[in-house]
What does this fold into?
Amino acid sequence: MPAHKPPLPKKTHPCTALAPAISLIASAAVLKCQVLRISTSACQPGQQATPGAVSATTLYCQHSPAHYCARHQWQPEGNDMQEFTYDLLVIGGGSGGVRAARMAAQRGVRVAMIESGALGGTCVNVGCIPKKLYSYAAHYSEAFEEAQGYGWNVTEKPRLNWELLKTNRAREITRLNGIYQNLLSGTGVELIDGRARLVDAHTVEANGVHYSASKILVATGGQPTMPDIEGKQYVICSDDIFDVSPFPQRLLIVGGGYIASEFASIFNGLGAQVTQLYRGEQILRGFDDEIRHFLADEMRKAGVDLRLNTDVTKIERNTDGLQVTMNDGQSISVDTVLYATGREPNVAGLGLEQLGIQQSASGAIIVDEQYQTSVPSVYALGDVTARLQLTPVALGEAMQLVDHLFGSSQKKMAYDFIPTAIFTHPNIGTVGYSEEQARSQFGKVRVYRSEFKTLKHTLSGSVERTLMKLIVDDASDRVIGLHMVGADAGEVVQGFAVAMKAGATKAIFDSTLGIHPTSAEEFVTMRTAVGE
It folds into this structure.
């Protein structure tokens, strides 16, 4: 198997232009950089560098590929420069992988990335970004109806141009792919198009070529799981829904998580007749129970046919499309069946088993607090570890790992008080503990809630209502849970998440003046706990 030839060393690093007085010392015998920890004030032109304070400038040896990041006190370990082509090889070009590669390269680390698909991973291509764009599109149908209450005469019913929406979405995603590529190439990351397979603890094969690295990072994300039922060949997954053709006038969505619930709201707003089936007692398991029930009611009011404790037994094609039979004996005819019943780690073909990398029963890569696998030179982060499957979590883990490997920080990622949003209609925004979790962990808690029709809907004619809820630890008065169902809930909760991360108490909330008239001000005006 041929070995990859290392790229030609850079003559200089852009940062060296900022510190021309720094002397770079190289051994003539091995042409290896021996840059000392120096400050830009430690040397004068023509003088030899001497040990001193750590420089704030990233130094890049102009004598060989060896380099040293003085700011973060990192040097290649042992004979890494002679043995390996790269210091870090990243498998997977999603959110976590791109962030890790880019941040490491900015510190002077030799980085390569192997990716077979479009850069940006699930989030950019078939997840967060296109989903939010379609959510915006769906909101316009609500806006057209609500405008009449504000005096706008909408004489002709607006019609969705599904093909145009898909084209515009694809163009925006292509633009973002290009931005990701420019960010990587601009920092010196070598991009390799192909599927990766681990050969040993320091070698990865792609396209028949072997690439060696001191450290390997697996950031391959997750993928949708598909059902094992009769007629499964007629099913599509969340990756397919963005380009489904023609537009599904009758759409069946199976699942009760945030992906299924979001698409139920979105396609209902776009004009489809949506039926959502979930085998459990209520959608969004793991979220606050009151929030779950409230949202389910709101979705039904908006037109989603939500059926609980129901599952599919078989799917057949007939002259009327697809006939879906359910476990209660009933059947329904639809145009498209979307399964969104979960995701699994994307690990097939990586060669993890051959290396003895430990995995969970679901296939998730098991890592320690520093994202190190059971093979010390191999790391993993993001959805492939199945911790919290959120883009910001993968980004945070990437920053933490790079700082750990190529910096001086030994901090650990904090997984408490991570805010999240669900882009159903209406949105959910949440941070901290649910009421059920809080009562279990803290014992005595106080619950504050407010349910109301927003000012906007006093004229719009919409029957949508908003729910806001605070959970307070009675012993410390700290706000430990904050939940909202309503318009722009994610935007509202993001700001409050900062205060909660800082340990804000209910007294601090009470002393904060609200912005009037807004929905968000309810969080700082609730005074009476439920039951008091």
Residues 8-74 have pLDDT under 50 and may be disordered. The chain has 13 helices and 24 strands. Residues 162-186 form the longest helix (25 residues).
